[in-house]
Amino acid sequence: MLENSLAEKLIEQVTKYTSYNVNIMNEQGVIIASRNPERIGKFHEVAWQIVHGTTDIMVTENDNEYPGVLSGINMIIEIEGKREGVVGVTGNPDEIRPIALIIKMAIETLIKYENQKMQAFRRQTRKDRFMEMLTQKQYRAPQDIQKLAAELNYREDLIRIPILCHLQSASDQEAFLHSIKNGREHLTQDISFQMEDRYILIFKTLKGEHLFSDYKFLLADYLKSTLKWMREEEICCTFYVGTFQTSFSQYYYSYQHCKWLETHIFGEHQAFYFYDFIGEYITSCIPRQELQQIFNVFAQKLPEDFRKNYIEIVGSLIQNNFNIQNAARQCFMHKNTFTYRYNKIREVLRLDHQRSMDDTWMLICLYLYLKL
């Protein structure tokens, strides 16, 4: 349907370059835009015949040959195979035929352009809504997410993993997203958003026989061209990679895993992967009240110097995968000194990480409680 506002805009643009009177009629044959405002709203018999017939061009030699029609040329406006309306140019048909054809082509081109802009706007509006559904817990209704995903042509059955990109400067957002989307490995099923502040969120589609072992290499290949562009432009960004998902209703949690990495894991690396810190995440999920109910007597009865020693020694062991030599190095101790202090802990609690996994978990959980 040819909108009045669009027709008025078209007349405004076209008449900048011609002195001829140009009219645009809708599918009911009514003049909806004209260089001559007095003609707007009047019925145009020829336009109605063209829209509802098979003739694409009709020439009128004399004024009022048809009701409400002046001499000139009237041509169909056809968009994507549909007869949307008619454009008419008033004047001597022999003189205006070349310019009339150019005006017709210009108007059809402008309509296509405006339609494409509107479609892009509507898609972006839907995509913004889709982003809210995926990243905000209150929008987790599966049927709503699935319906909107179908409108955007996103399949749910694919394996995707989120990449939360935190840029140092908000001014780099658009250029960064443009670089991502123009990368050789960016697929039509990859979902990417520009978020508030300095963030870009990508749900990257991954596949392959060795997906779970090779996903870091696949993501490195995906980001390769963008990383090169970042180095050239001296742009800084940190990447937080969440968890695999195949259900849109679970994407919220995957995104939250990225946010957990951002707030809990620090270092000089440019990229952090959630599955590398699964132990720290699980232990961070233990409610403080649970630890209090289990270990409150330990805190009351163990001497303060023992608790301080425990936090230092066991904490360094946890950070070094219970490798005594590496833990001693982290504490700037000789290995024998570190072992002596660790043995004091084992004697009091009868715990040894080398004896059983249960002892290891006991050491970790007590450390978490005493540290709190």
From TrEMBL:
Domain spans labelled Putative sugar diacid recognition: 2-132
Pfam family, one: Diacid_rec
UniProt superkingdom: Bacteria
InterPro entries in the cross-refs: CdaR-like_regulators, Diacid_rec, PucR_C-HTH_dom, PucR_C-HTH_sf
Residue runs in coiled coils: none
Domain PucR C-terminal helix-turn-helix: 312-355
Protein name: CdaR family transcriptional regulator
Organism this protein belongs to: Mediterraneibacter gnavus (strain CC55_001C)
